[in-house]
Design brief:
single chain; 91 residues; mainly alpha; 2 domains; 4 helices; 0% strand; elongated; Arc_rbn_hlx_hlx
């Protein structure tokens, strides 16, 4: 027997959930039911914080992006390994 579950969520969260469900080709109710079943089977509810880069990594990435825009520290594309080795030895 099926029943109705009413849950209060923000309209933005609902839009995002509907978009995700549509993207995977399922009704939102199936996505929610699947998530609940998985939590029950595994006896866990998972929440995770989005990954956040360290300040050091952000600085390194900014330098790399700056180099790419300036064409610095870039190697050409190679068609075979020997060509790459010749390039490296010429430096």
């Amino acid at each position: 027997m099926k029943t109705v579950l009413t849950v209060k969520i923000s309209s933005e969260l609902k839009k995002q959930a509907q978009a995700l469900a549509e993207e995977v080709g399922l009704p939102l109710s199936t996505v929610v039911a699947g998530s609940l079943k998985e939590s029950i089977e595994k006896k866990e509810v998972r929440f995770s914080a989005p990954y956040q880069m360290s300040a050091k990594l952000e600085r390194k990435l900014a330098k790399v992006e700056k180099d790419i825009k300036a064409g610095k520290n870039m190697s050409p594309a190679f068609s075979d390994p020997e060509e790459a080795i010749r390039y490296l030895r010429s430096r």
